[in-house]
Every structure is written in C-alpha cells, then in structure tokens.
Write a structure and sequence with these properties.
With 224 residues, the chain is of the alpha+beta class. The chain has 5 helices and 5 strands. It has a 5-stranded antiparallel beta sheet with strand order 4-3-2-1-5. Strand 2 and strand 3 form a beta hairpin. The model has no long low-confidence stretch (mean pLDDT 79).
Length: 224
C-alpha cells in the first residue's frame, strides 16, 4: 500500500467501524418504532408500544389534559412491560404484535439483520488479517463484505418500515400514530456508513493505475 493510500484507508476503516457499532446498537435495541393508540378521553390511561427486531415493550401511560388524541409521548412515566416475540420465544406472550402484524415481517427483518452481522464479522476478519499479515489484497474482500452488510441493514430497515405501515393502515389494529425512534436512526446511519465505506475502501485498496500512457501495469509501483 502506498503512502498516499494508507491515510485514506485508515479514515475509511474508522467510518466503517462507526457503522459497525451503530449496526450492533440497532440490532440489539428495541426502539425502532413507537406505536400509539387513539385516546378518547382526557386524563385516561392508554398503552403505547415500542419494538425492535426481537422484542416489544408496552407502556401504560396516564395522559395529561391535552388536545392530542394519540397516546404518548413514550417518555412519560408509566408501567413498562417487555417480552420477546412469540415466534422467537414460545414461552413469552406478545399478543399485541401477533395480532397487529404478520410475523413474517418480523422474522424476515431479524434474519436479514443476522446476515448483516455475519458479513460484518467476515469483513472485520479480512481487515485484521490484512494488517497483521501485510496482505493488502484482503482489504478488497473486506470492502465487499462491509458493502453487503450495509445492504442487508437497508433491507431490514425497509422490511420494518413496511411492517409499521401495514399495522397503521390495517382496520384490525388500535394504532393510529407512529414514529421511528433512535434505533431506526442508528440502522439508517449504519447502512450509509457501511455501504459507502465499503465502496470507498474497495477503491482505495485497488492497485495504482499507470500514470502515463506508455507505462504498463507491470511497471507500476508494486504494493507493499
């Protein structure tokens, strides 16, 4: 690797590392979306929910005197109850999510997220080996693994978004309001950093092209 390429590669790997951390945070947390039912009476008790790829949490909130007809915000104090989705843990009870959305959406989003973590592990292994063994060519498969991981995160985000949309549009649910929370934002940022970082790492790790028309690839400066 030339001296001009090394700083670019290190900067790109740092951005990818931030994307990896954000992807891990998004996968293990349960604040992808917040759902709110309609509140008909002021000072009434309502039950809002927030969920991630594996778990849903409901929160019983006493609404203050407000003109807002939705339950929340979720940051208000109240009794909280969390459970894993029934299709991941049959012993748990999560009737709300089982009734209000198709479980295929949840399973698909979680499975694709696992694929993303697998690509991240393979990319990180290649990147570490490239530095320890001085084999710069391993950065190229690493860059592809990171780009594939970013694409998987994007697909997981889109599946979750479609799931929320179907819940809100369905006539068989109590949810009338929703918004995407910080776990969803972490996933979106992880997609951008992993995908663009992977493409940039691929470009920076390629061999130097001949600088003159008469300079052949064999005469170009070798990689170190």
């Amino acid at each position: 690797m030339s001296q001009t390429q090394a700083p670019k590669v290190r900067t790109t790997l740092f951005c990818i590392l931030v994307g990896v951390v954000l992807a891990l945070v998004a996968v293990v947390t349960d604040h992808w979306a917040v759902l709110s039912p309609e509140v008909e009476h002021h000072n009434a008790t309502c039950e809002a929910a927030h969920f991630g790829l594996w778990r849903i949490c409901t929160k019983r909130i006493v609404m203050p005197d407000s003109k807002d007809k939705t339950c929340g915000p979720i940051t208000l104090p109240g009794e909280k109850n969390c459970s894993y989705f029934r299709h991941f843990n049959p012993g748990e009870t999560s009737e709300i999510f089982e009734v209000t959305t198709q479980k295929e959406y949840s399973i698909s989003a979680a499975a694709i997220a696992i694929f993303s973590l697998g690509f991240i592990i393979m990319g990180t292994s290649c990147a570490l080996l490239s530095f320890r063994k001085k084999r710069d060519y391993l950065l190229r498969p690493a860059s592809l693994f990171y780009a594939f991981a970013g694409l998987c995160v994007f697909v997981s985000v889109e599946v979750t978004r479609q799931s929320v949309k179907r819940m809100i549009d369905s006539e068989h649910t109590v949810w009338i309001g929703y918004y995407y929370s910080w776990s969803f934002a972490c996933a979106c940022a992880a997609f951008v950093l992993l995908f663009l970082g992977g493409l940039a790492l691929l470009l920076f790790s390629l061999p130097r092209m001949p600088q003159n028309p008469w300079e052949s690839c064999m005469d170009a400066e070798p990689e170190h």
